[in-house]
Amino acid sequence: MGVTYICQWKQPEGQNIQQSIEQISSCVEKLGAKKAGLFQVECESFNAPNAPNAKTLHLIYDSEFPASRFALFEEGSFLVTDVMLSAFLSKLRAVWQPKKGGKIDCKGQRYELGDFLIKLGVVSVGASAKGISVELEYAPCVYARDCWGMMSEMLQSIIGEQAPPSLPSNLQPKGTERFSPELTMQQYVEMFNNIRKTVVAR
Amino acid sequence: MSDVMAQAKLNMNFLSQAITGTQQLRSTVTNVFNLLCEGVKPDEEEDGKGDDAETAVTVGKDGKKFLQRFQEYLEAVNKDYNEVEKMCNNMTSMTDLPVLGPSGALSLDSIADKNSTYRDAVLTYQWNNRLHEYAQIATSLMLTNQIKRSQLQAGAGAKRRRAAPPKFTNLPSQTVDNTLQTLSRQLSDTTMKILQASGDTRIVHLAVGRVFVVIIVLRSLTIEKVLVKGLDENIILENNTVDLFSDSQYLCMQKITDHAMSAVLQYSTYQASPPEFPLKYLLYWLQSYKSLFTDACTVCGKHLDNGLPPLWRDFKIPVPCHDSCRA
């Protein structure tokens, strides 16, 4: 598990999702990346209506970690469990109830280029596509600050101007901690929340 | 070529004349023996029957007739013999035939007609000759256009390479441990520990900065194997032994392993007097990788080349450089 950066691709005016995906894929393939299967990330949100101060709970499934489920509370607590967590949550229906329209997923193509893993996904709520996600993972390095120069160069060549100019704050763990799947899941939840907000705003 | 043909033709002529001459000689010799067998005719004296010329001389006048005939025949023999000898002297030996030593006798073997050993031997000999000729030409050409990778003389280089025996294998264990400790203190940003030690063999674990770990197998102070792996890869197997054989799952670490092995070969050929020098050079060289993910290539100024960071470090001045950028 290396350093991962996830961002939402902002579509140019007058371009639909399919066209954008094709544009980025051709760009990635031109760099020399090879297709390496499909990926899927699902996120389901729960809230506790009976407890007024309770934060939202996000339950995430990622095809990169098929035997695990990630539980992330809005305030920052994080839990890695096995696949039985969703069954367990349904038993706790009296406390945790699925949020309405809280199911969101991201599916798409994986690419490999050297030790880089590039994932281009379509984010959809229910059946309607809402946006495009771009995920870049550099596997051999476990410290985001060290390999940011390389990742930034790669992002520049994939998403051009939309690449962040400096190391995003959400990629910087406290102190000199190693990068962990938790940071990946946090980025996914943030991106999903942003997409939901923009959908609502429209 | 035509000279050779004319010579051969002449020889053939001489040969046929010589054969005719030999036949003539045989017939005259046969005449002599026939005459001797017949001996003196019955109307001649009994004593003339002897088969020797001297005995014939002692007989009477009829014996003289016999003797006269005998002399005539002998003269004919002498003449024919001189003729054959002349023919033999006229013939020259075939000097342009390949000299095959004792294998030339194969051509005389009648069975050789069935299995073509002699013919094959001659062909092989000719090919061998040609090969030798070509090799000589090639050598002379190559000597005029020498390509050298080093400034050393070719002879001196070959000698030096041969003179690199594993000469430091018999160091006492305490010396090796002390050397390793000293080396680990000298390196910055690098931690070194001995994972396993059995007899002369030690497995050393080296963590280079926040970049990778290296497993080095040492026999005394001779480097046997270097394996580079990512920080999050397993190096200890389930049965608590060190995994020395599976490559890293990361492409860049696999390539660094290859470079490290060539570094080992390079440093082992140095004429270093202290035994720890090859190891020391290697450790300093590996240490230069601590900035693998942060430094850009010194040639093209970029971080990435085909998805890989600048993986190459020169063996003398270890500056980061892409594989494709190195001169």
Automatic annotation (TrEMBL), chain A:
Main location: nucleus
Keyword set includes Glycoprotein: no
Record InterPro entries: Mediator_Med20 (IPR013921)
Any one annotated GO CC term: mediator complex
Location in or out of the cell: Nucleus
GO molecular function: transcription coactivator activity
Keywords from the UniProt entry: Activator, Nucleus, Transcription, Transcription regulation
Pfam families assigned to the protein according to its UniProt record, in alphabetical order: Med20
GO BP term, example: regulation of transcription by RNA polymerase II
Protein family: Belongs to the Mediator complex subunit 20 family.
Subunit description: Component of the Mediator complex.
Main function: Component of the Mediator complex, a coactivator involved in the regulated transcription of nearly all RNA polymerase II-dependent genes. Mediator functions as a bridge to convey information from gene-specific regulatory proteins to the basal RNA polymerase II transcription machinery. Mediator is recruited to promoters by direct interactions with regulatory proteins and serves as a scaffold for the assembly of a functional preinitiation complex with RNA polymerase II and the general transcription factors.
Name of the protein: Mediator of RNA polymerase II transcription subunit 20
UniProtKB/TrEMBL annotation, chain B:
One cellular component (GO) term of this entry: mediator complex
GO MF, any single term: transcription coactivator activity
Localization (cell): Nucleus
Protein name, per record: Mediator of RNA polymerase II transcription subunit 27-like
GO biological process, one term: regulation of transcription by RNA polymerase II
Transcription regulation recorded as keyword: yes
Main location: nucleus
Gene behind the chain: Med27
Domain of life: Eukaryota
Family, per entry: Belongs to the Mediator complex subunit 27 family.
One Pfam assignment: Med27
